[in-house]
Amino acid sequence: RQAISEKVLALYGHHYNPDTEITITAGGTQAILTVIACAIGPGDEVIVIEPVYDSYVPSIDTVGGIAVPVQLEVLRNEVGQVSGYAIPWEAIAKAITPRTKMIMINSPHNPTSMVWKSGDLEKLAEIVRNTNILICSDEVYEHMVYDGQIHQSVARHPELANRSFVISSFGKTYHVTGWKVGYVAAPAALTHEFRKVHQFLTRNL
């Protein structure tokens, strides 16, 4: 946990207390379910940006939450071929209701490989500002960025970091997915709630 804290600080400029704000998990998928289970209750809405990793919606369903899908925008070149993807900010803003409890984001994105830009973080912060909406940021592919791109962790953005669960995975980084080792970094108050669920799933902090 100390090493993770130092790594995040070095890469993204945000300090997480290794004792109270970083939890080791049995991989990224367990982390996702635990984040949802600790924060979402029956009838709570969770915005997911499709296509999504296949555990998101079942995890939301398991705790009685309601997944609210918003489709990525598909960008095409002059001959109609897919050239990339963009976050549908207007659609996300319209999808927010008084029951919205969380927005789940994923960058680098599985399965499109789209990487968020710093401007995307600013737009997300603008949308959730003056709300109590939490962010679940799935960043398990954080070190798999190419062509000069830079991974924009929500940990880089203090306003977002204060309301976010950040998920990463050693399995992806070190190509040892069978080991099922990941972590969640979050403010102490959110980590406290996370560990209430986590301790009964793994008996491991």
Strand order of the largest sheet: 1-9-8-7-6-2-3
Low-confidence stretches: none
Average predicted confidence as pLDDT: 95
Portion of residues within helices: 25-40%
Q: What structural category do the secondary elements indicate? A: alpha/beta
What gross morphology would you assign? globular
Write the layout of secondary structure elements.
Layout: H1 2-12, E1 22-25, H2 27-39, E2 45-50, H3 56-62, E3 66-71, E4 73-76, E5 82-86, H4 89-95, E6 100-106, H5 118-128, E7 134-138, H6 158-161, E8 164-169, H7 170-173, E9 182-185, H8 188-202
Parallel strand pairs: 2-3, 2-6, 6-7, 7-8
Antiparallel strand pairs: 1-9, 4-5, 8-9
Description:
With 205 residues, this protein is an alpha/beta fold. 35% of the residues lie in helices and 23% in strands. It contains 8 helices and 9 strands. The strands form 2 sheets. It has a 7-stranded mixed sheet with strand order 1-9-8-7-6-2-3, sandwiched between helices. A two-stranded antiparallel ribbon has the order 4-5. Helix 5 (118-128) links the parallel strand 6 (100-106) and strand 7. It is globular, with a radius of gyration of 16 Å. The protein starts with a helix and ends with a helix. The model has no long low-confidence stretch (mean pLDDT 95).
Tag the structure with descriptive keywords:
alpha/beta; two-stranded antiparallel sheet; 205 residues; seven-stranded mixed β-sheet
